[in-house]
């Protein structure tokens, strides 16, 4: 799996009542993102690679790195599949 990702320019990102919502205008589907997903998106938007983001999230939450890594990889893979994230090349 690639290590750097970004939200494509065509995807709309907004906060709604404390939650993040992403809209892929190509599909017209809204996606509600939980707090952990929002933290991952924020770190990726700041330019962090996935490994650095996972390490930071593990420190902040106290969860084991392996668990955070697995969850983060699954989240990113789902977001890429929905065309809400793309690898940075």
Task: Describe the fold and architecture.
There is one protein chain. By secondary structure, the protein is an alpha+beta fold. It has one domain: Arc Repressor Mutant, subunit A, CATH 1.10.10. Helix content is 45%, strand content 22%. The strands form two sheets. The chain has a three-stranded antiparallel β-sheet with strand order 2-3-4. Strand 2 and strand 3 form a beta hairpin. The longest helix has 17 residues.
Continuous helix count: 3
- Main beta sheet strand tally, sense and closure: 3 strands, antiparallel
Q: What is the CA-based Rg, rounded?
A: 13 Å
Domain module tally: 1
Q: Distance N terminus to C terminus?
A: 12 Å
Shape by Cα distribution: globular
* Known CATH architecture: Orthogonal Bundle
Can you tell me the residue ranges where pLDDT is under 50 for at least 5 consecutive residues? Answer: none
Q: Tell me the fraction of residues in β-strands, as a range.
A: 15-25%
Task: State the helicity in percent bands.
Answer: 40-55%
Secondary structure elements and their pairing?
Blueprint lengths: L4 E2 L5 E5 L2 E6 L4 E5 L1 H11 L4 H12 L3 H17 L4 E2 L2
Antiparallel strand pairs: 1-5, 2-3, 3-4
Helix pairs in contact: 1-2, 2-3
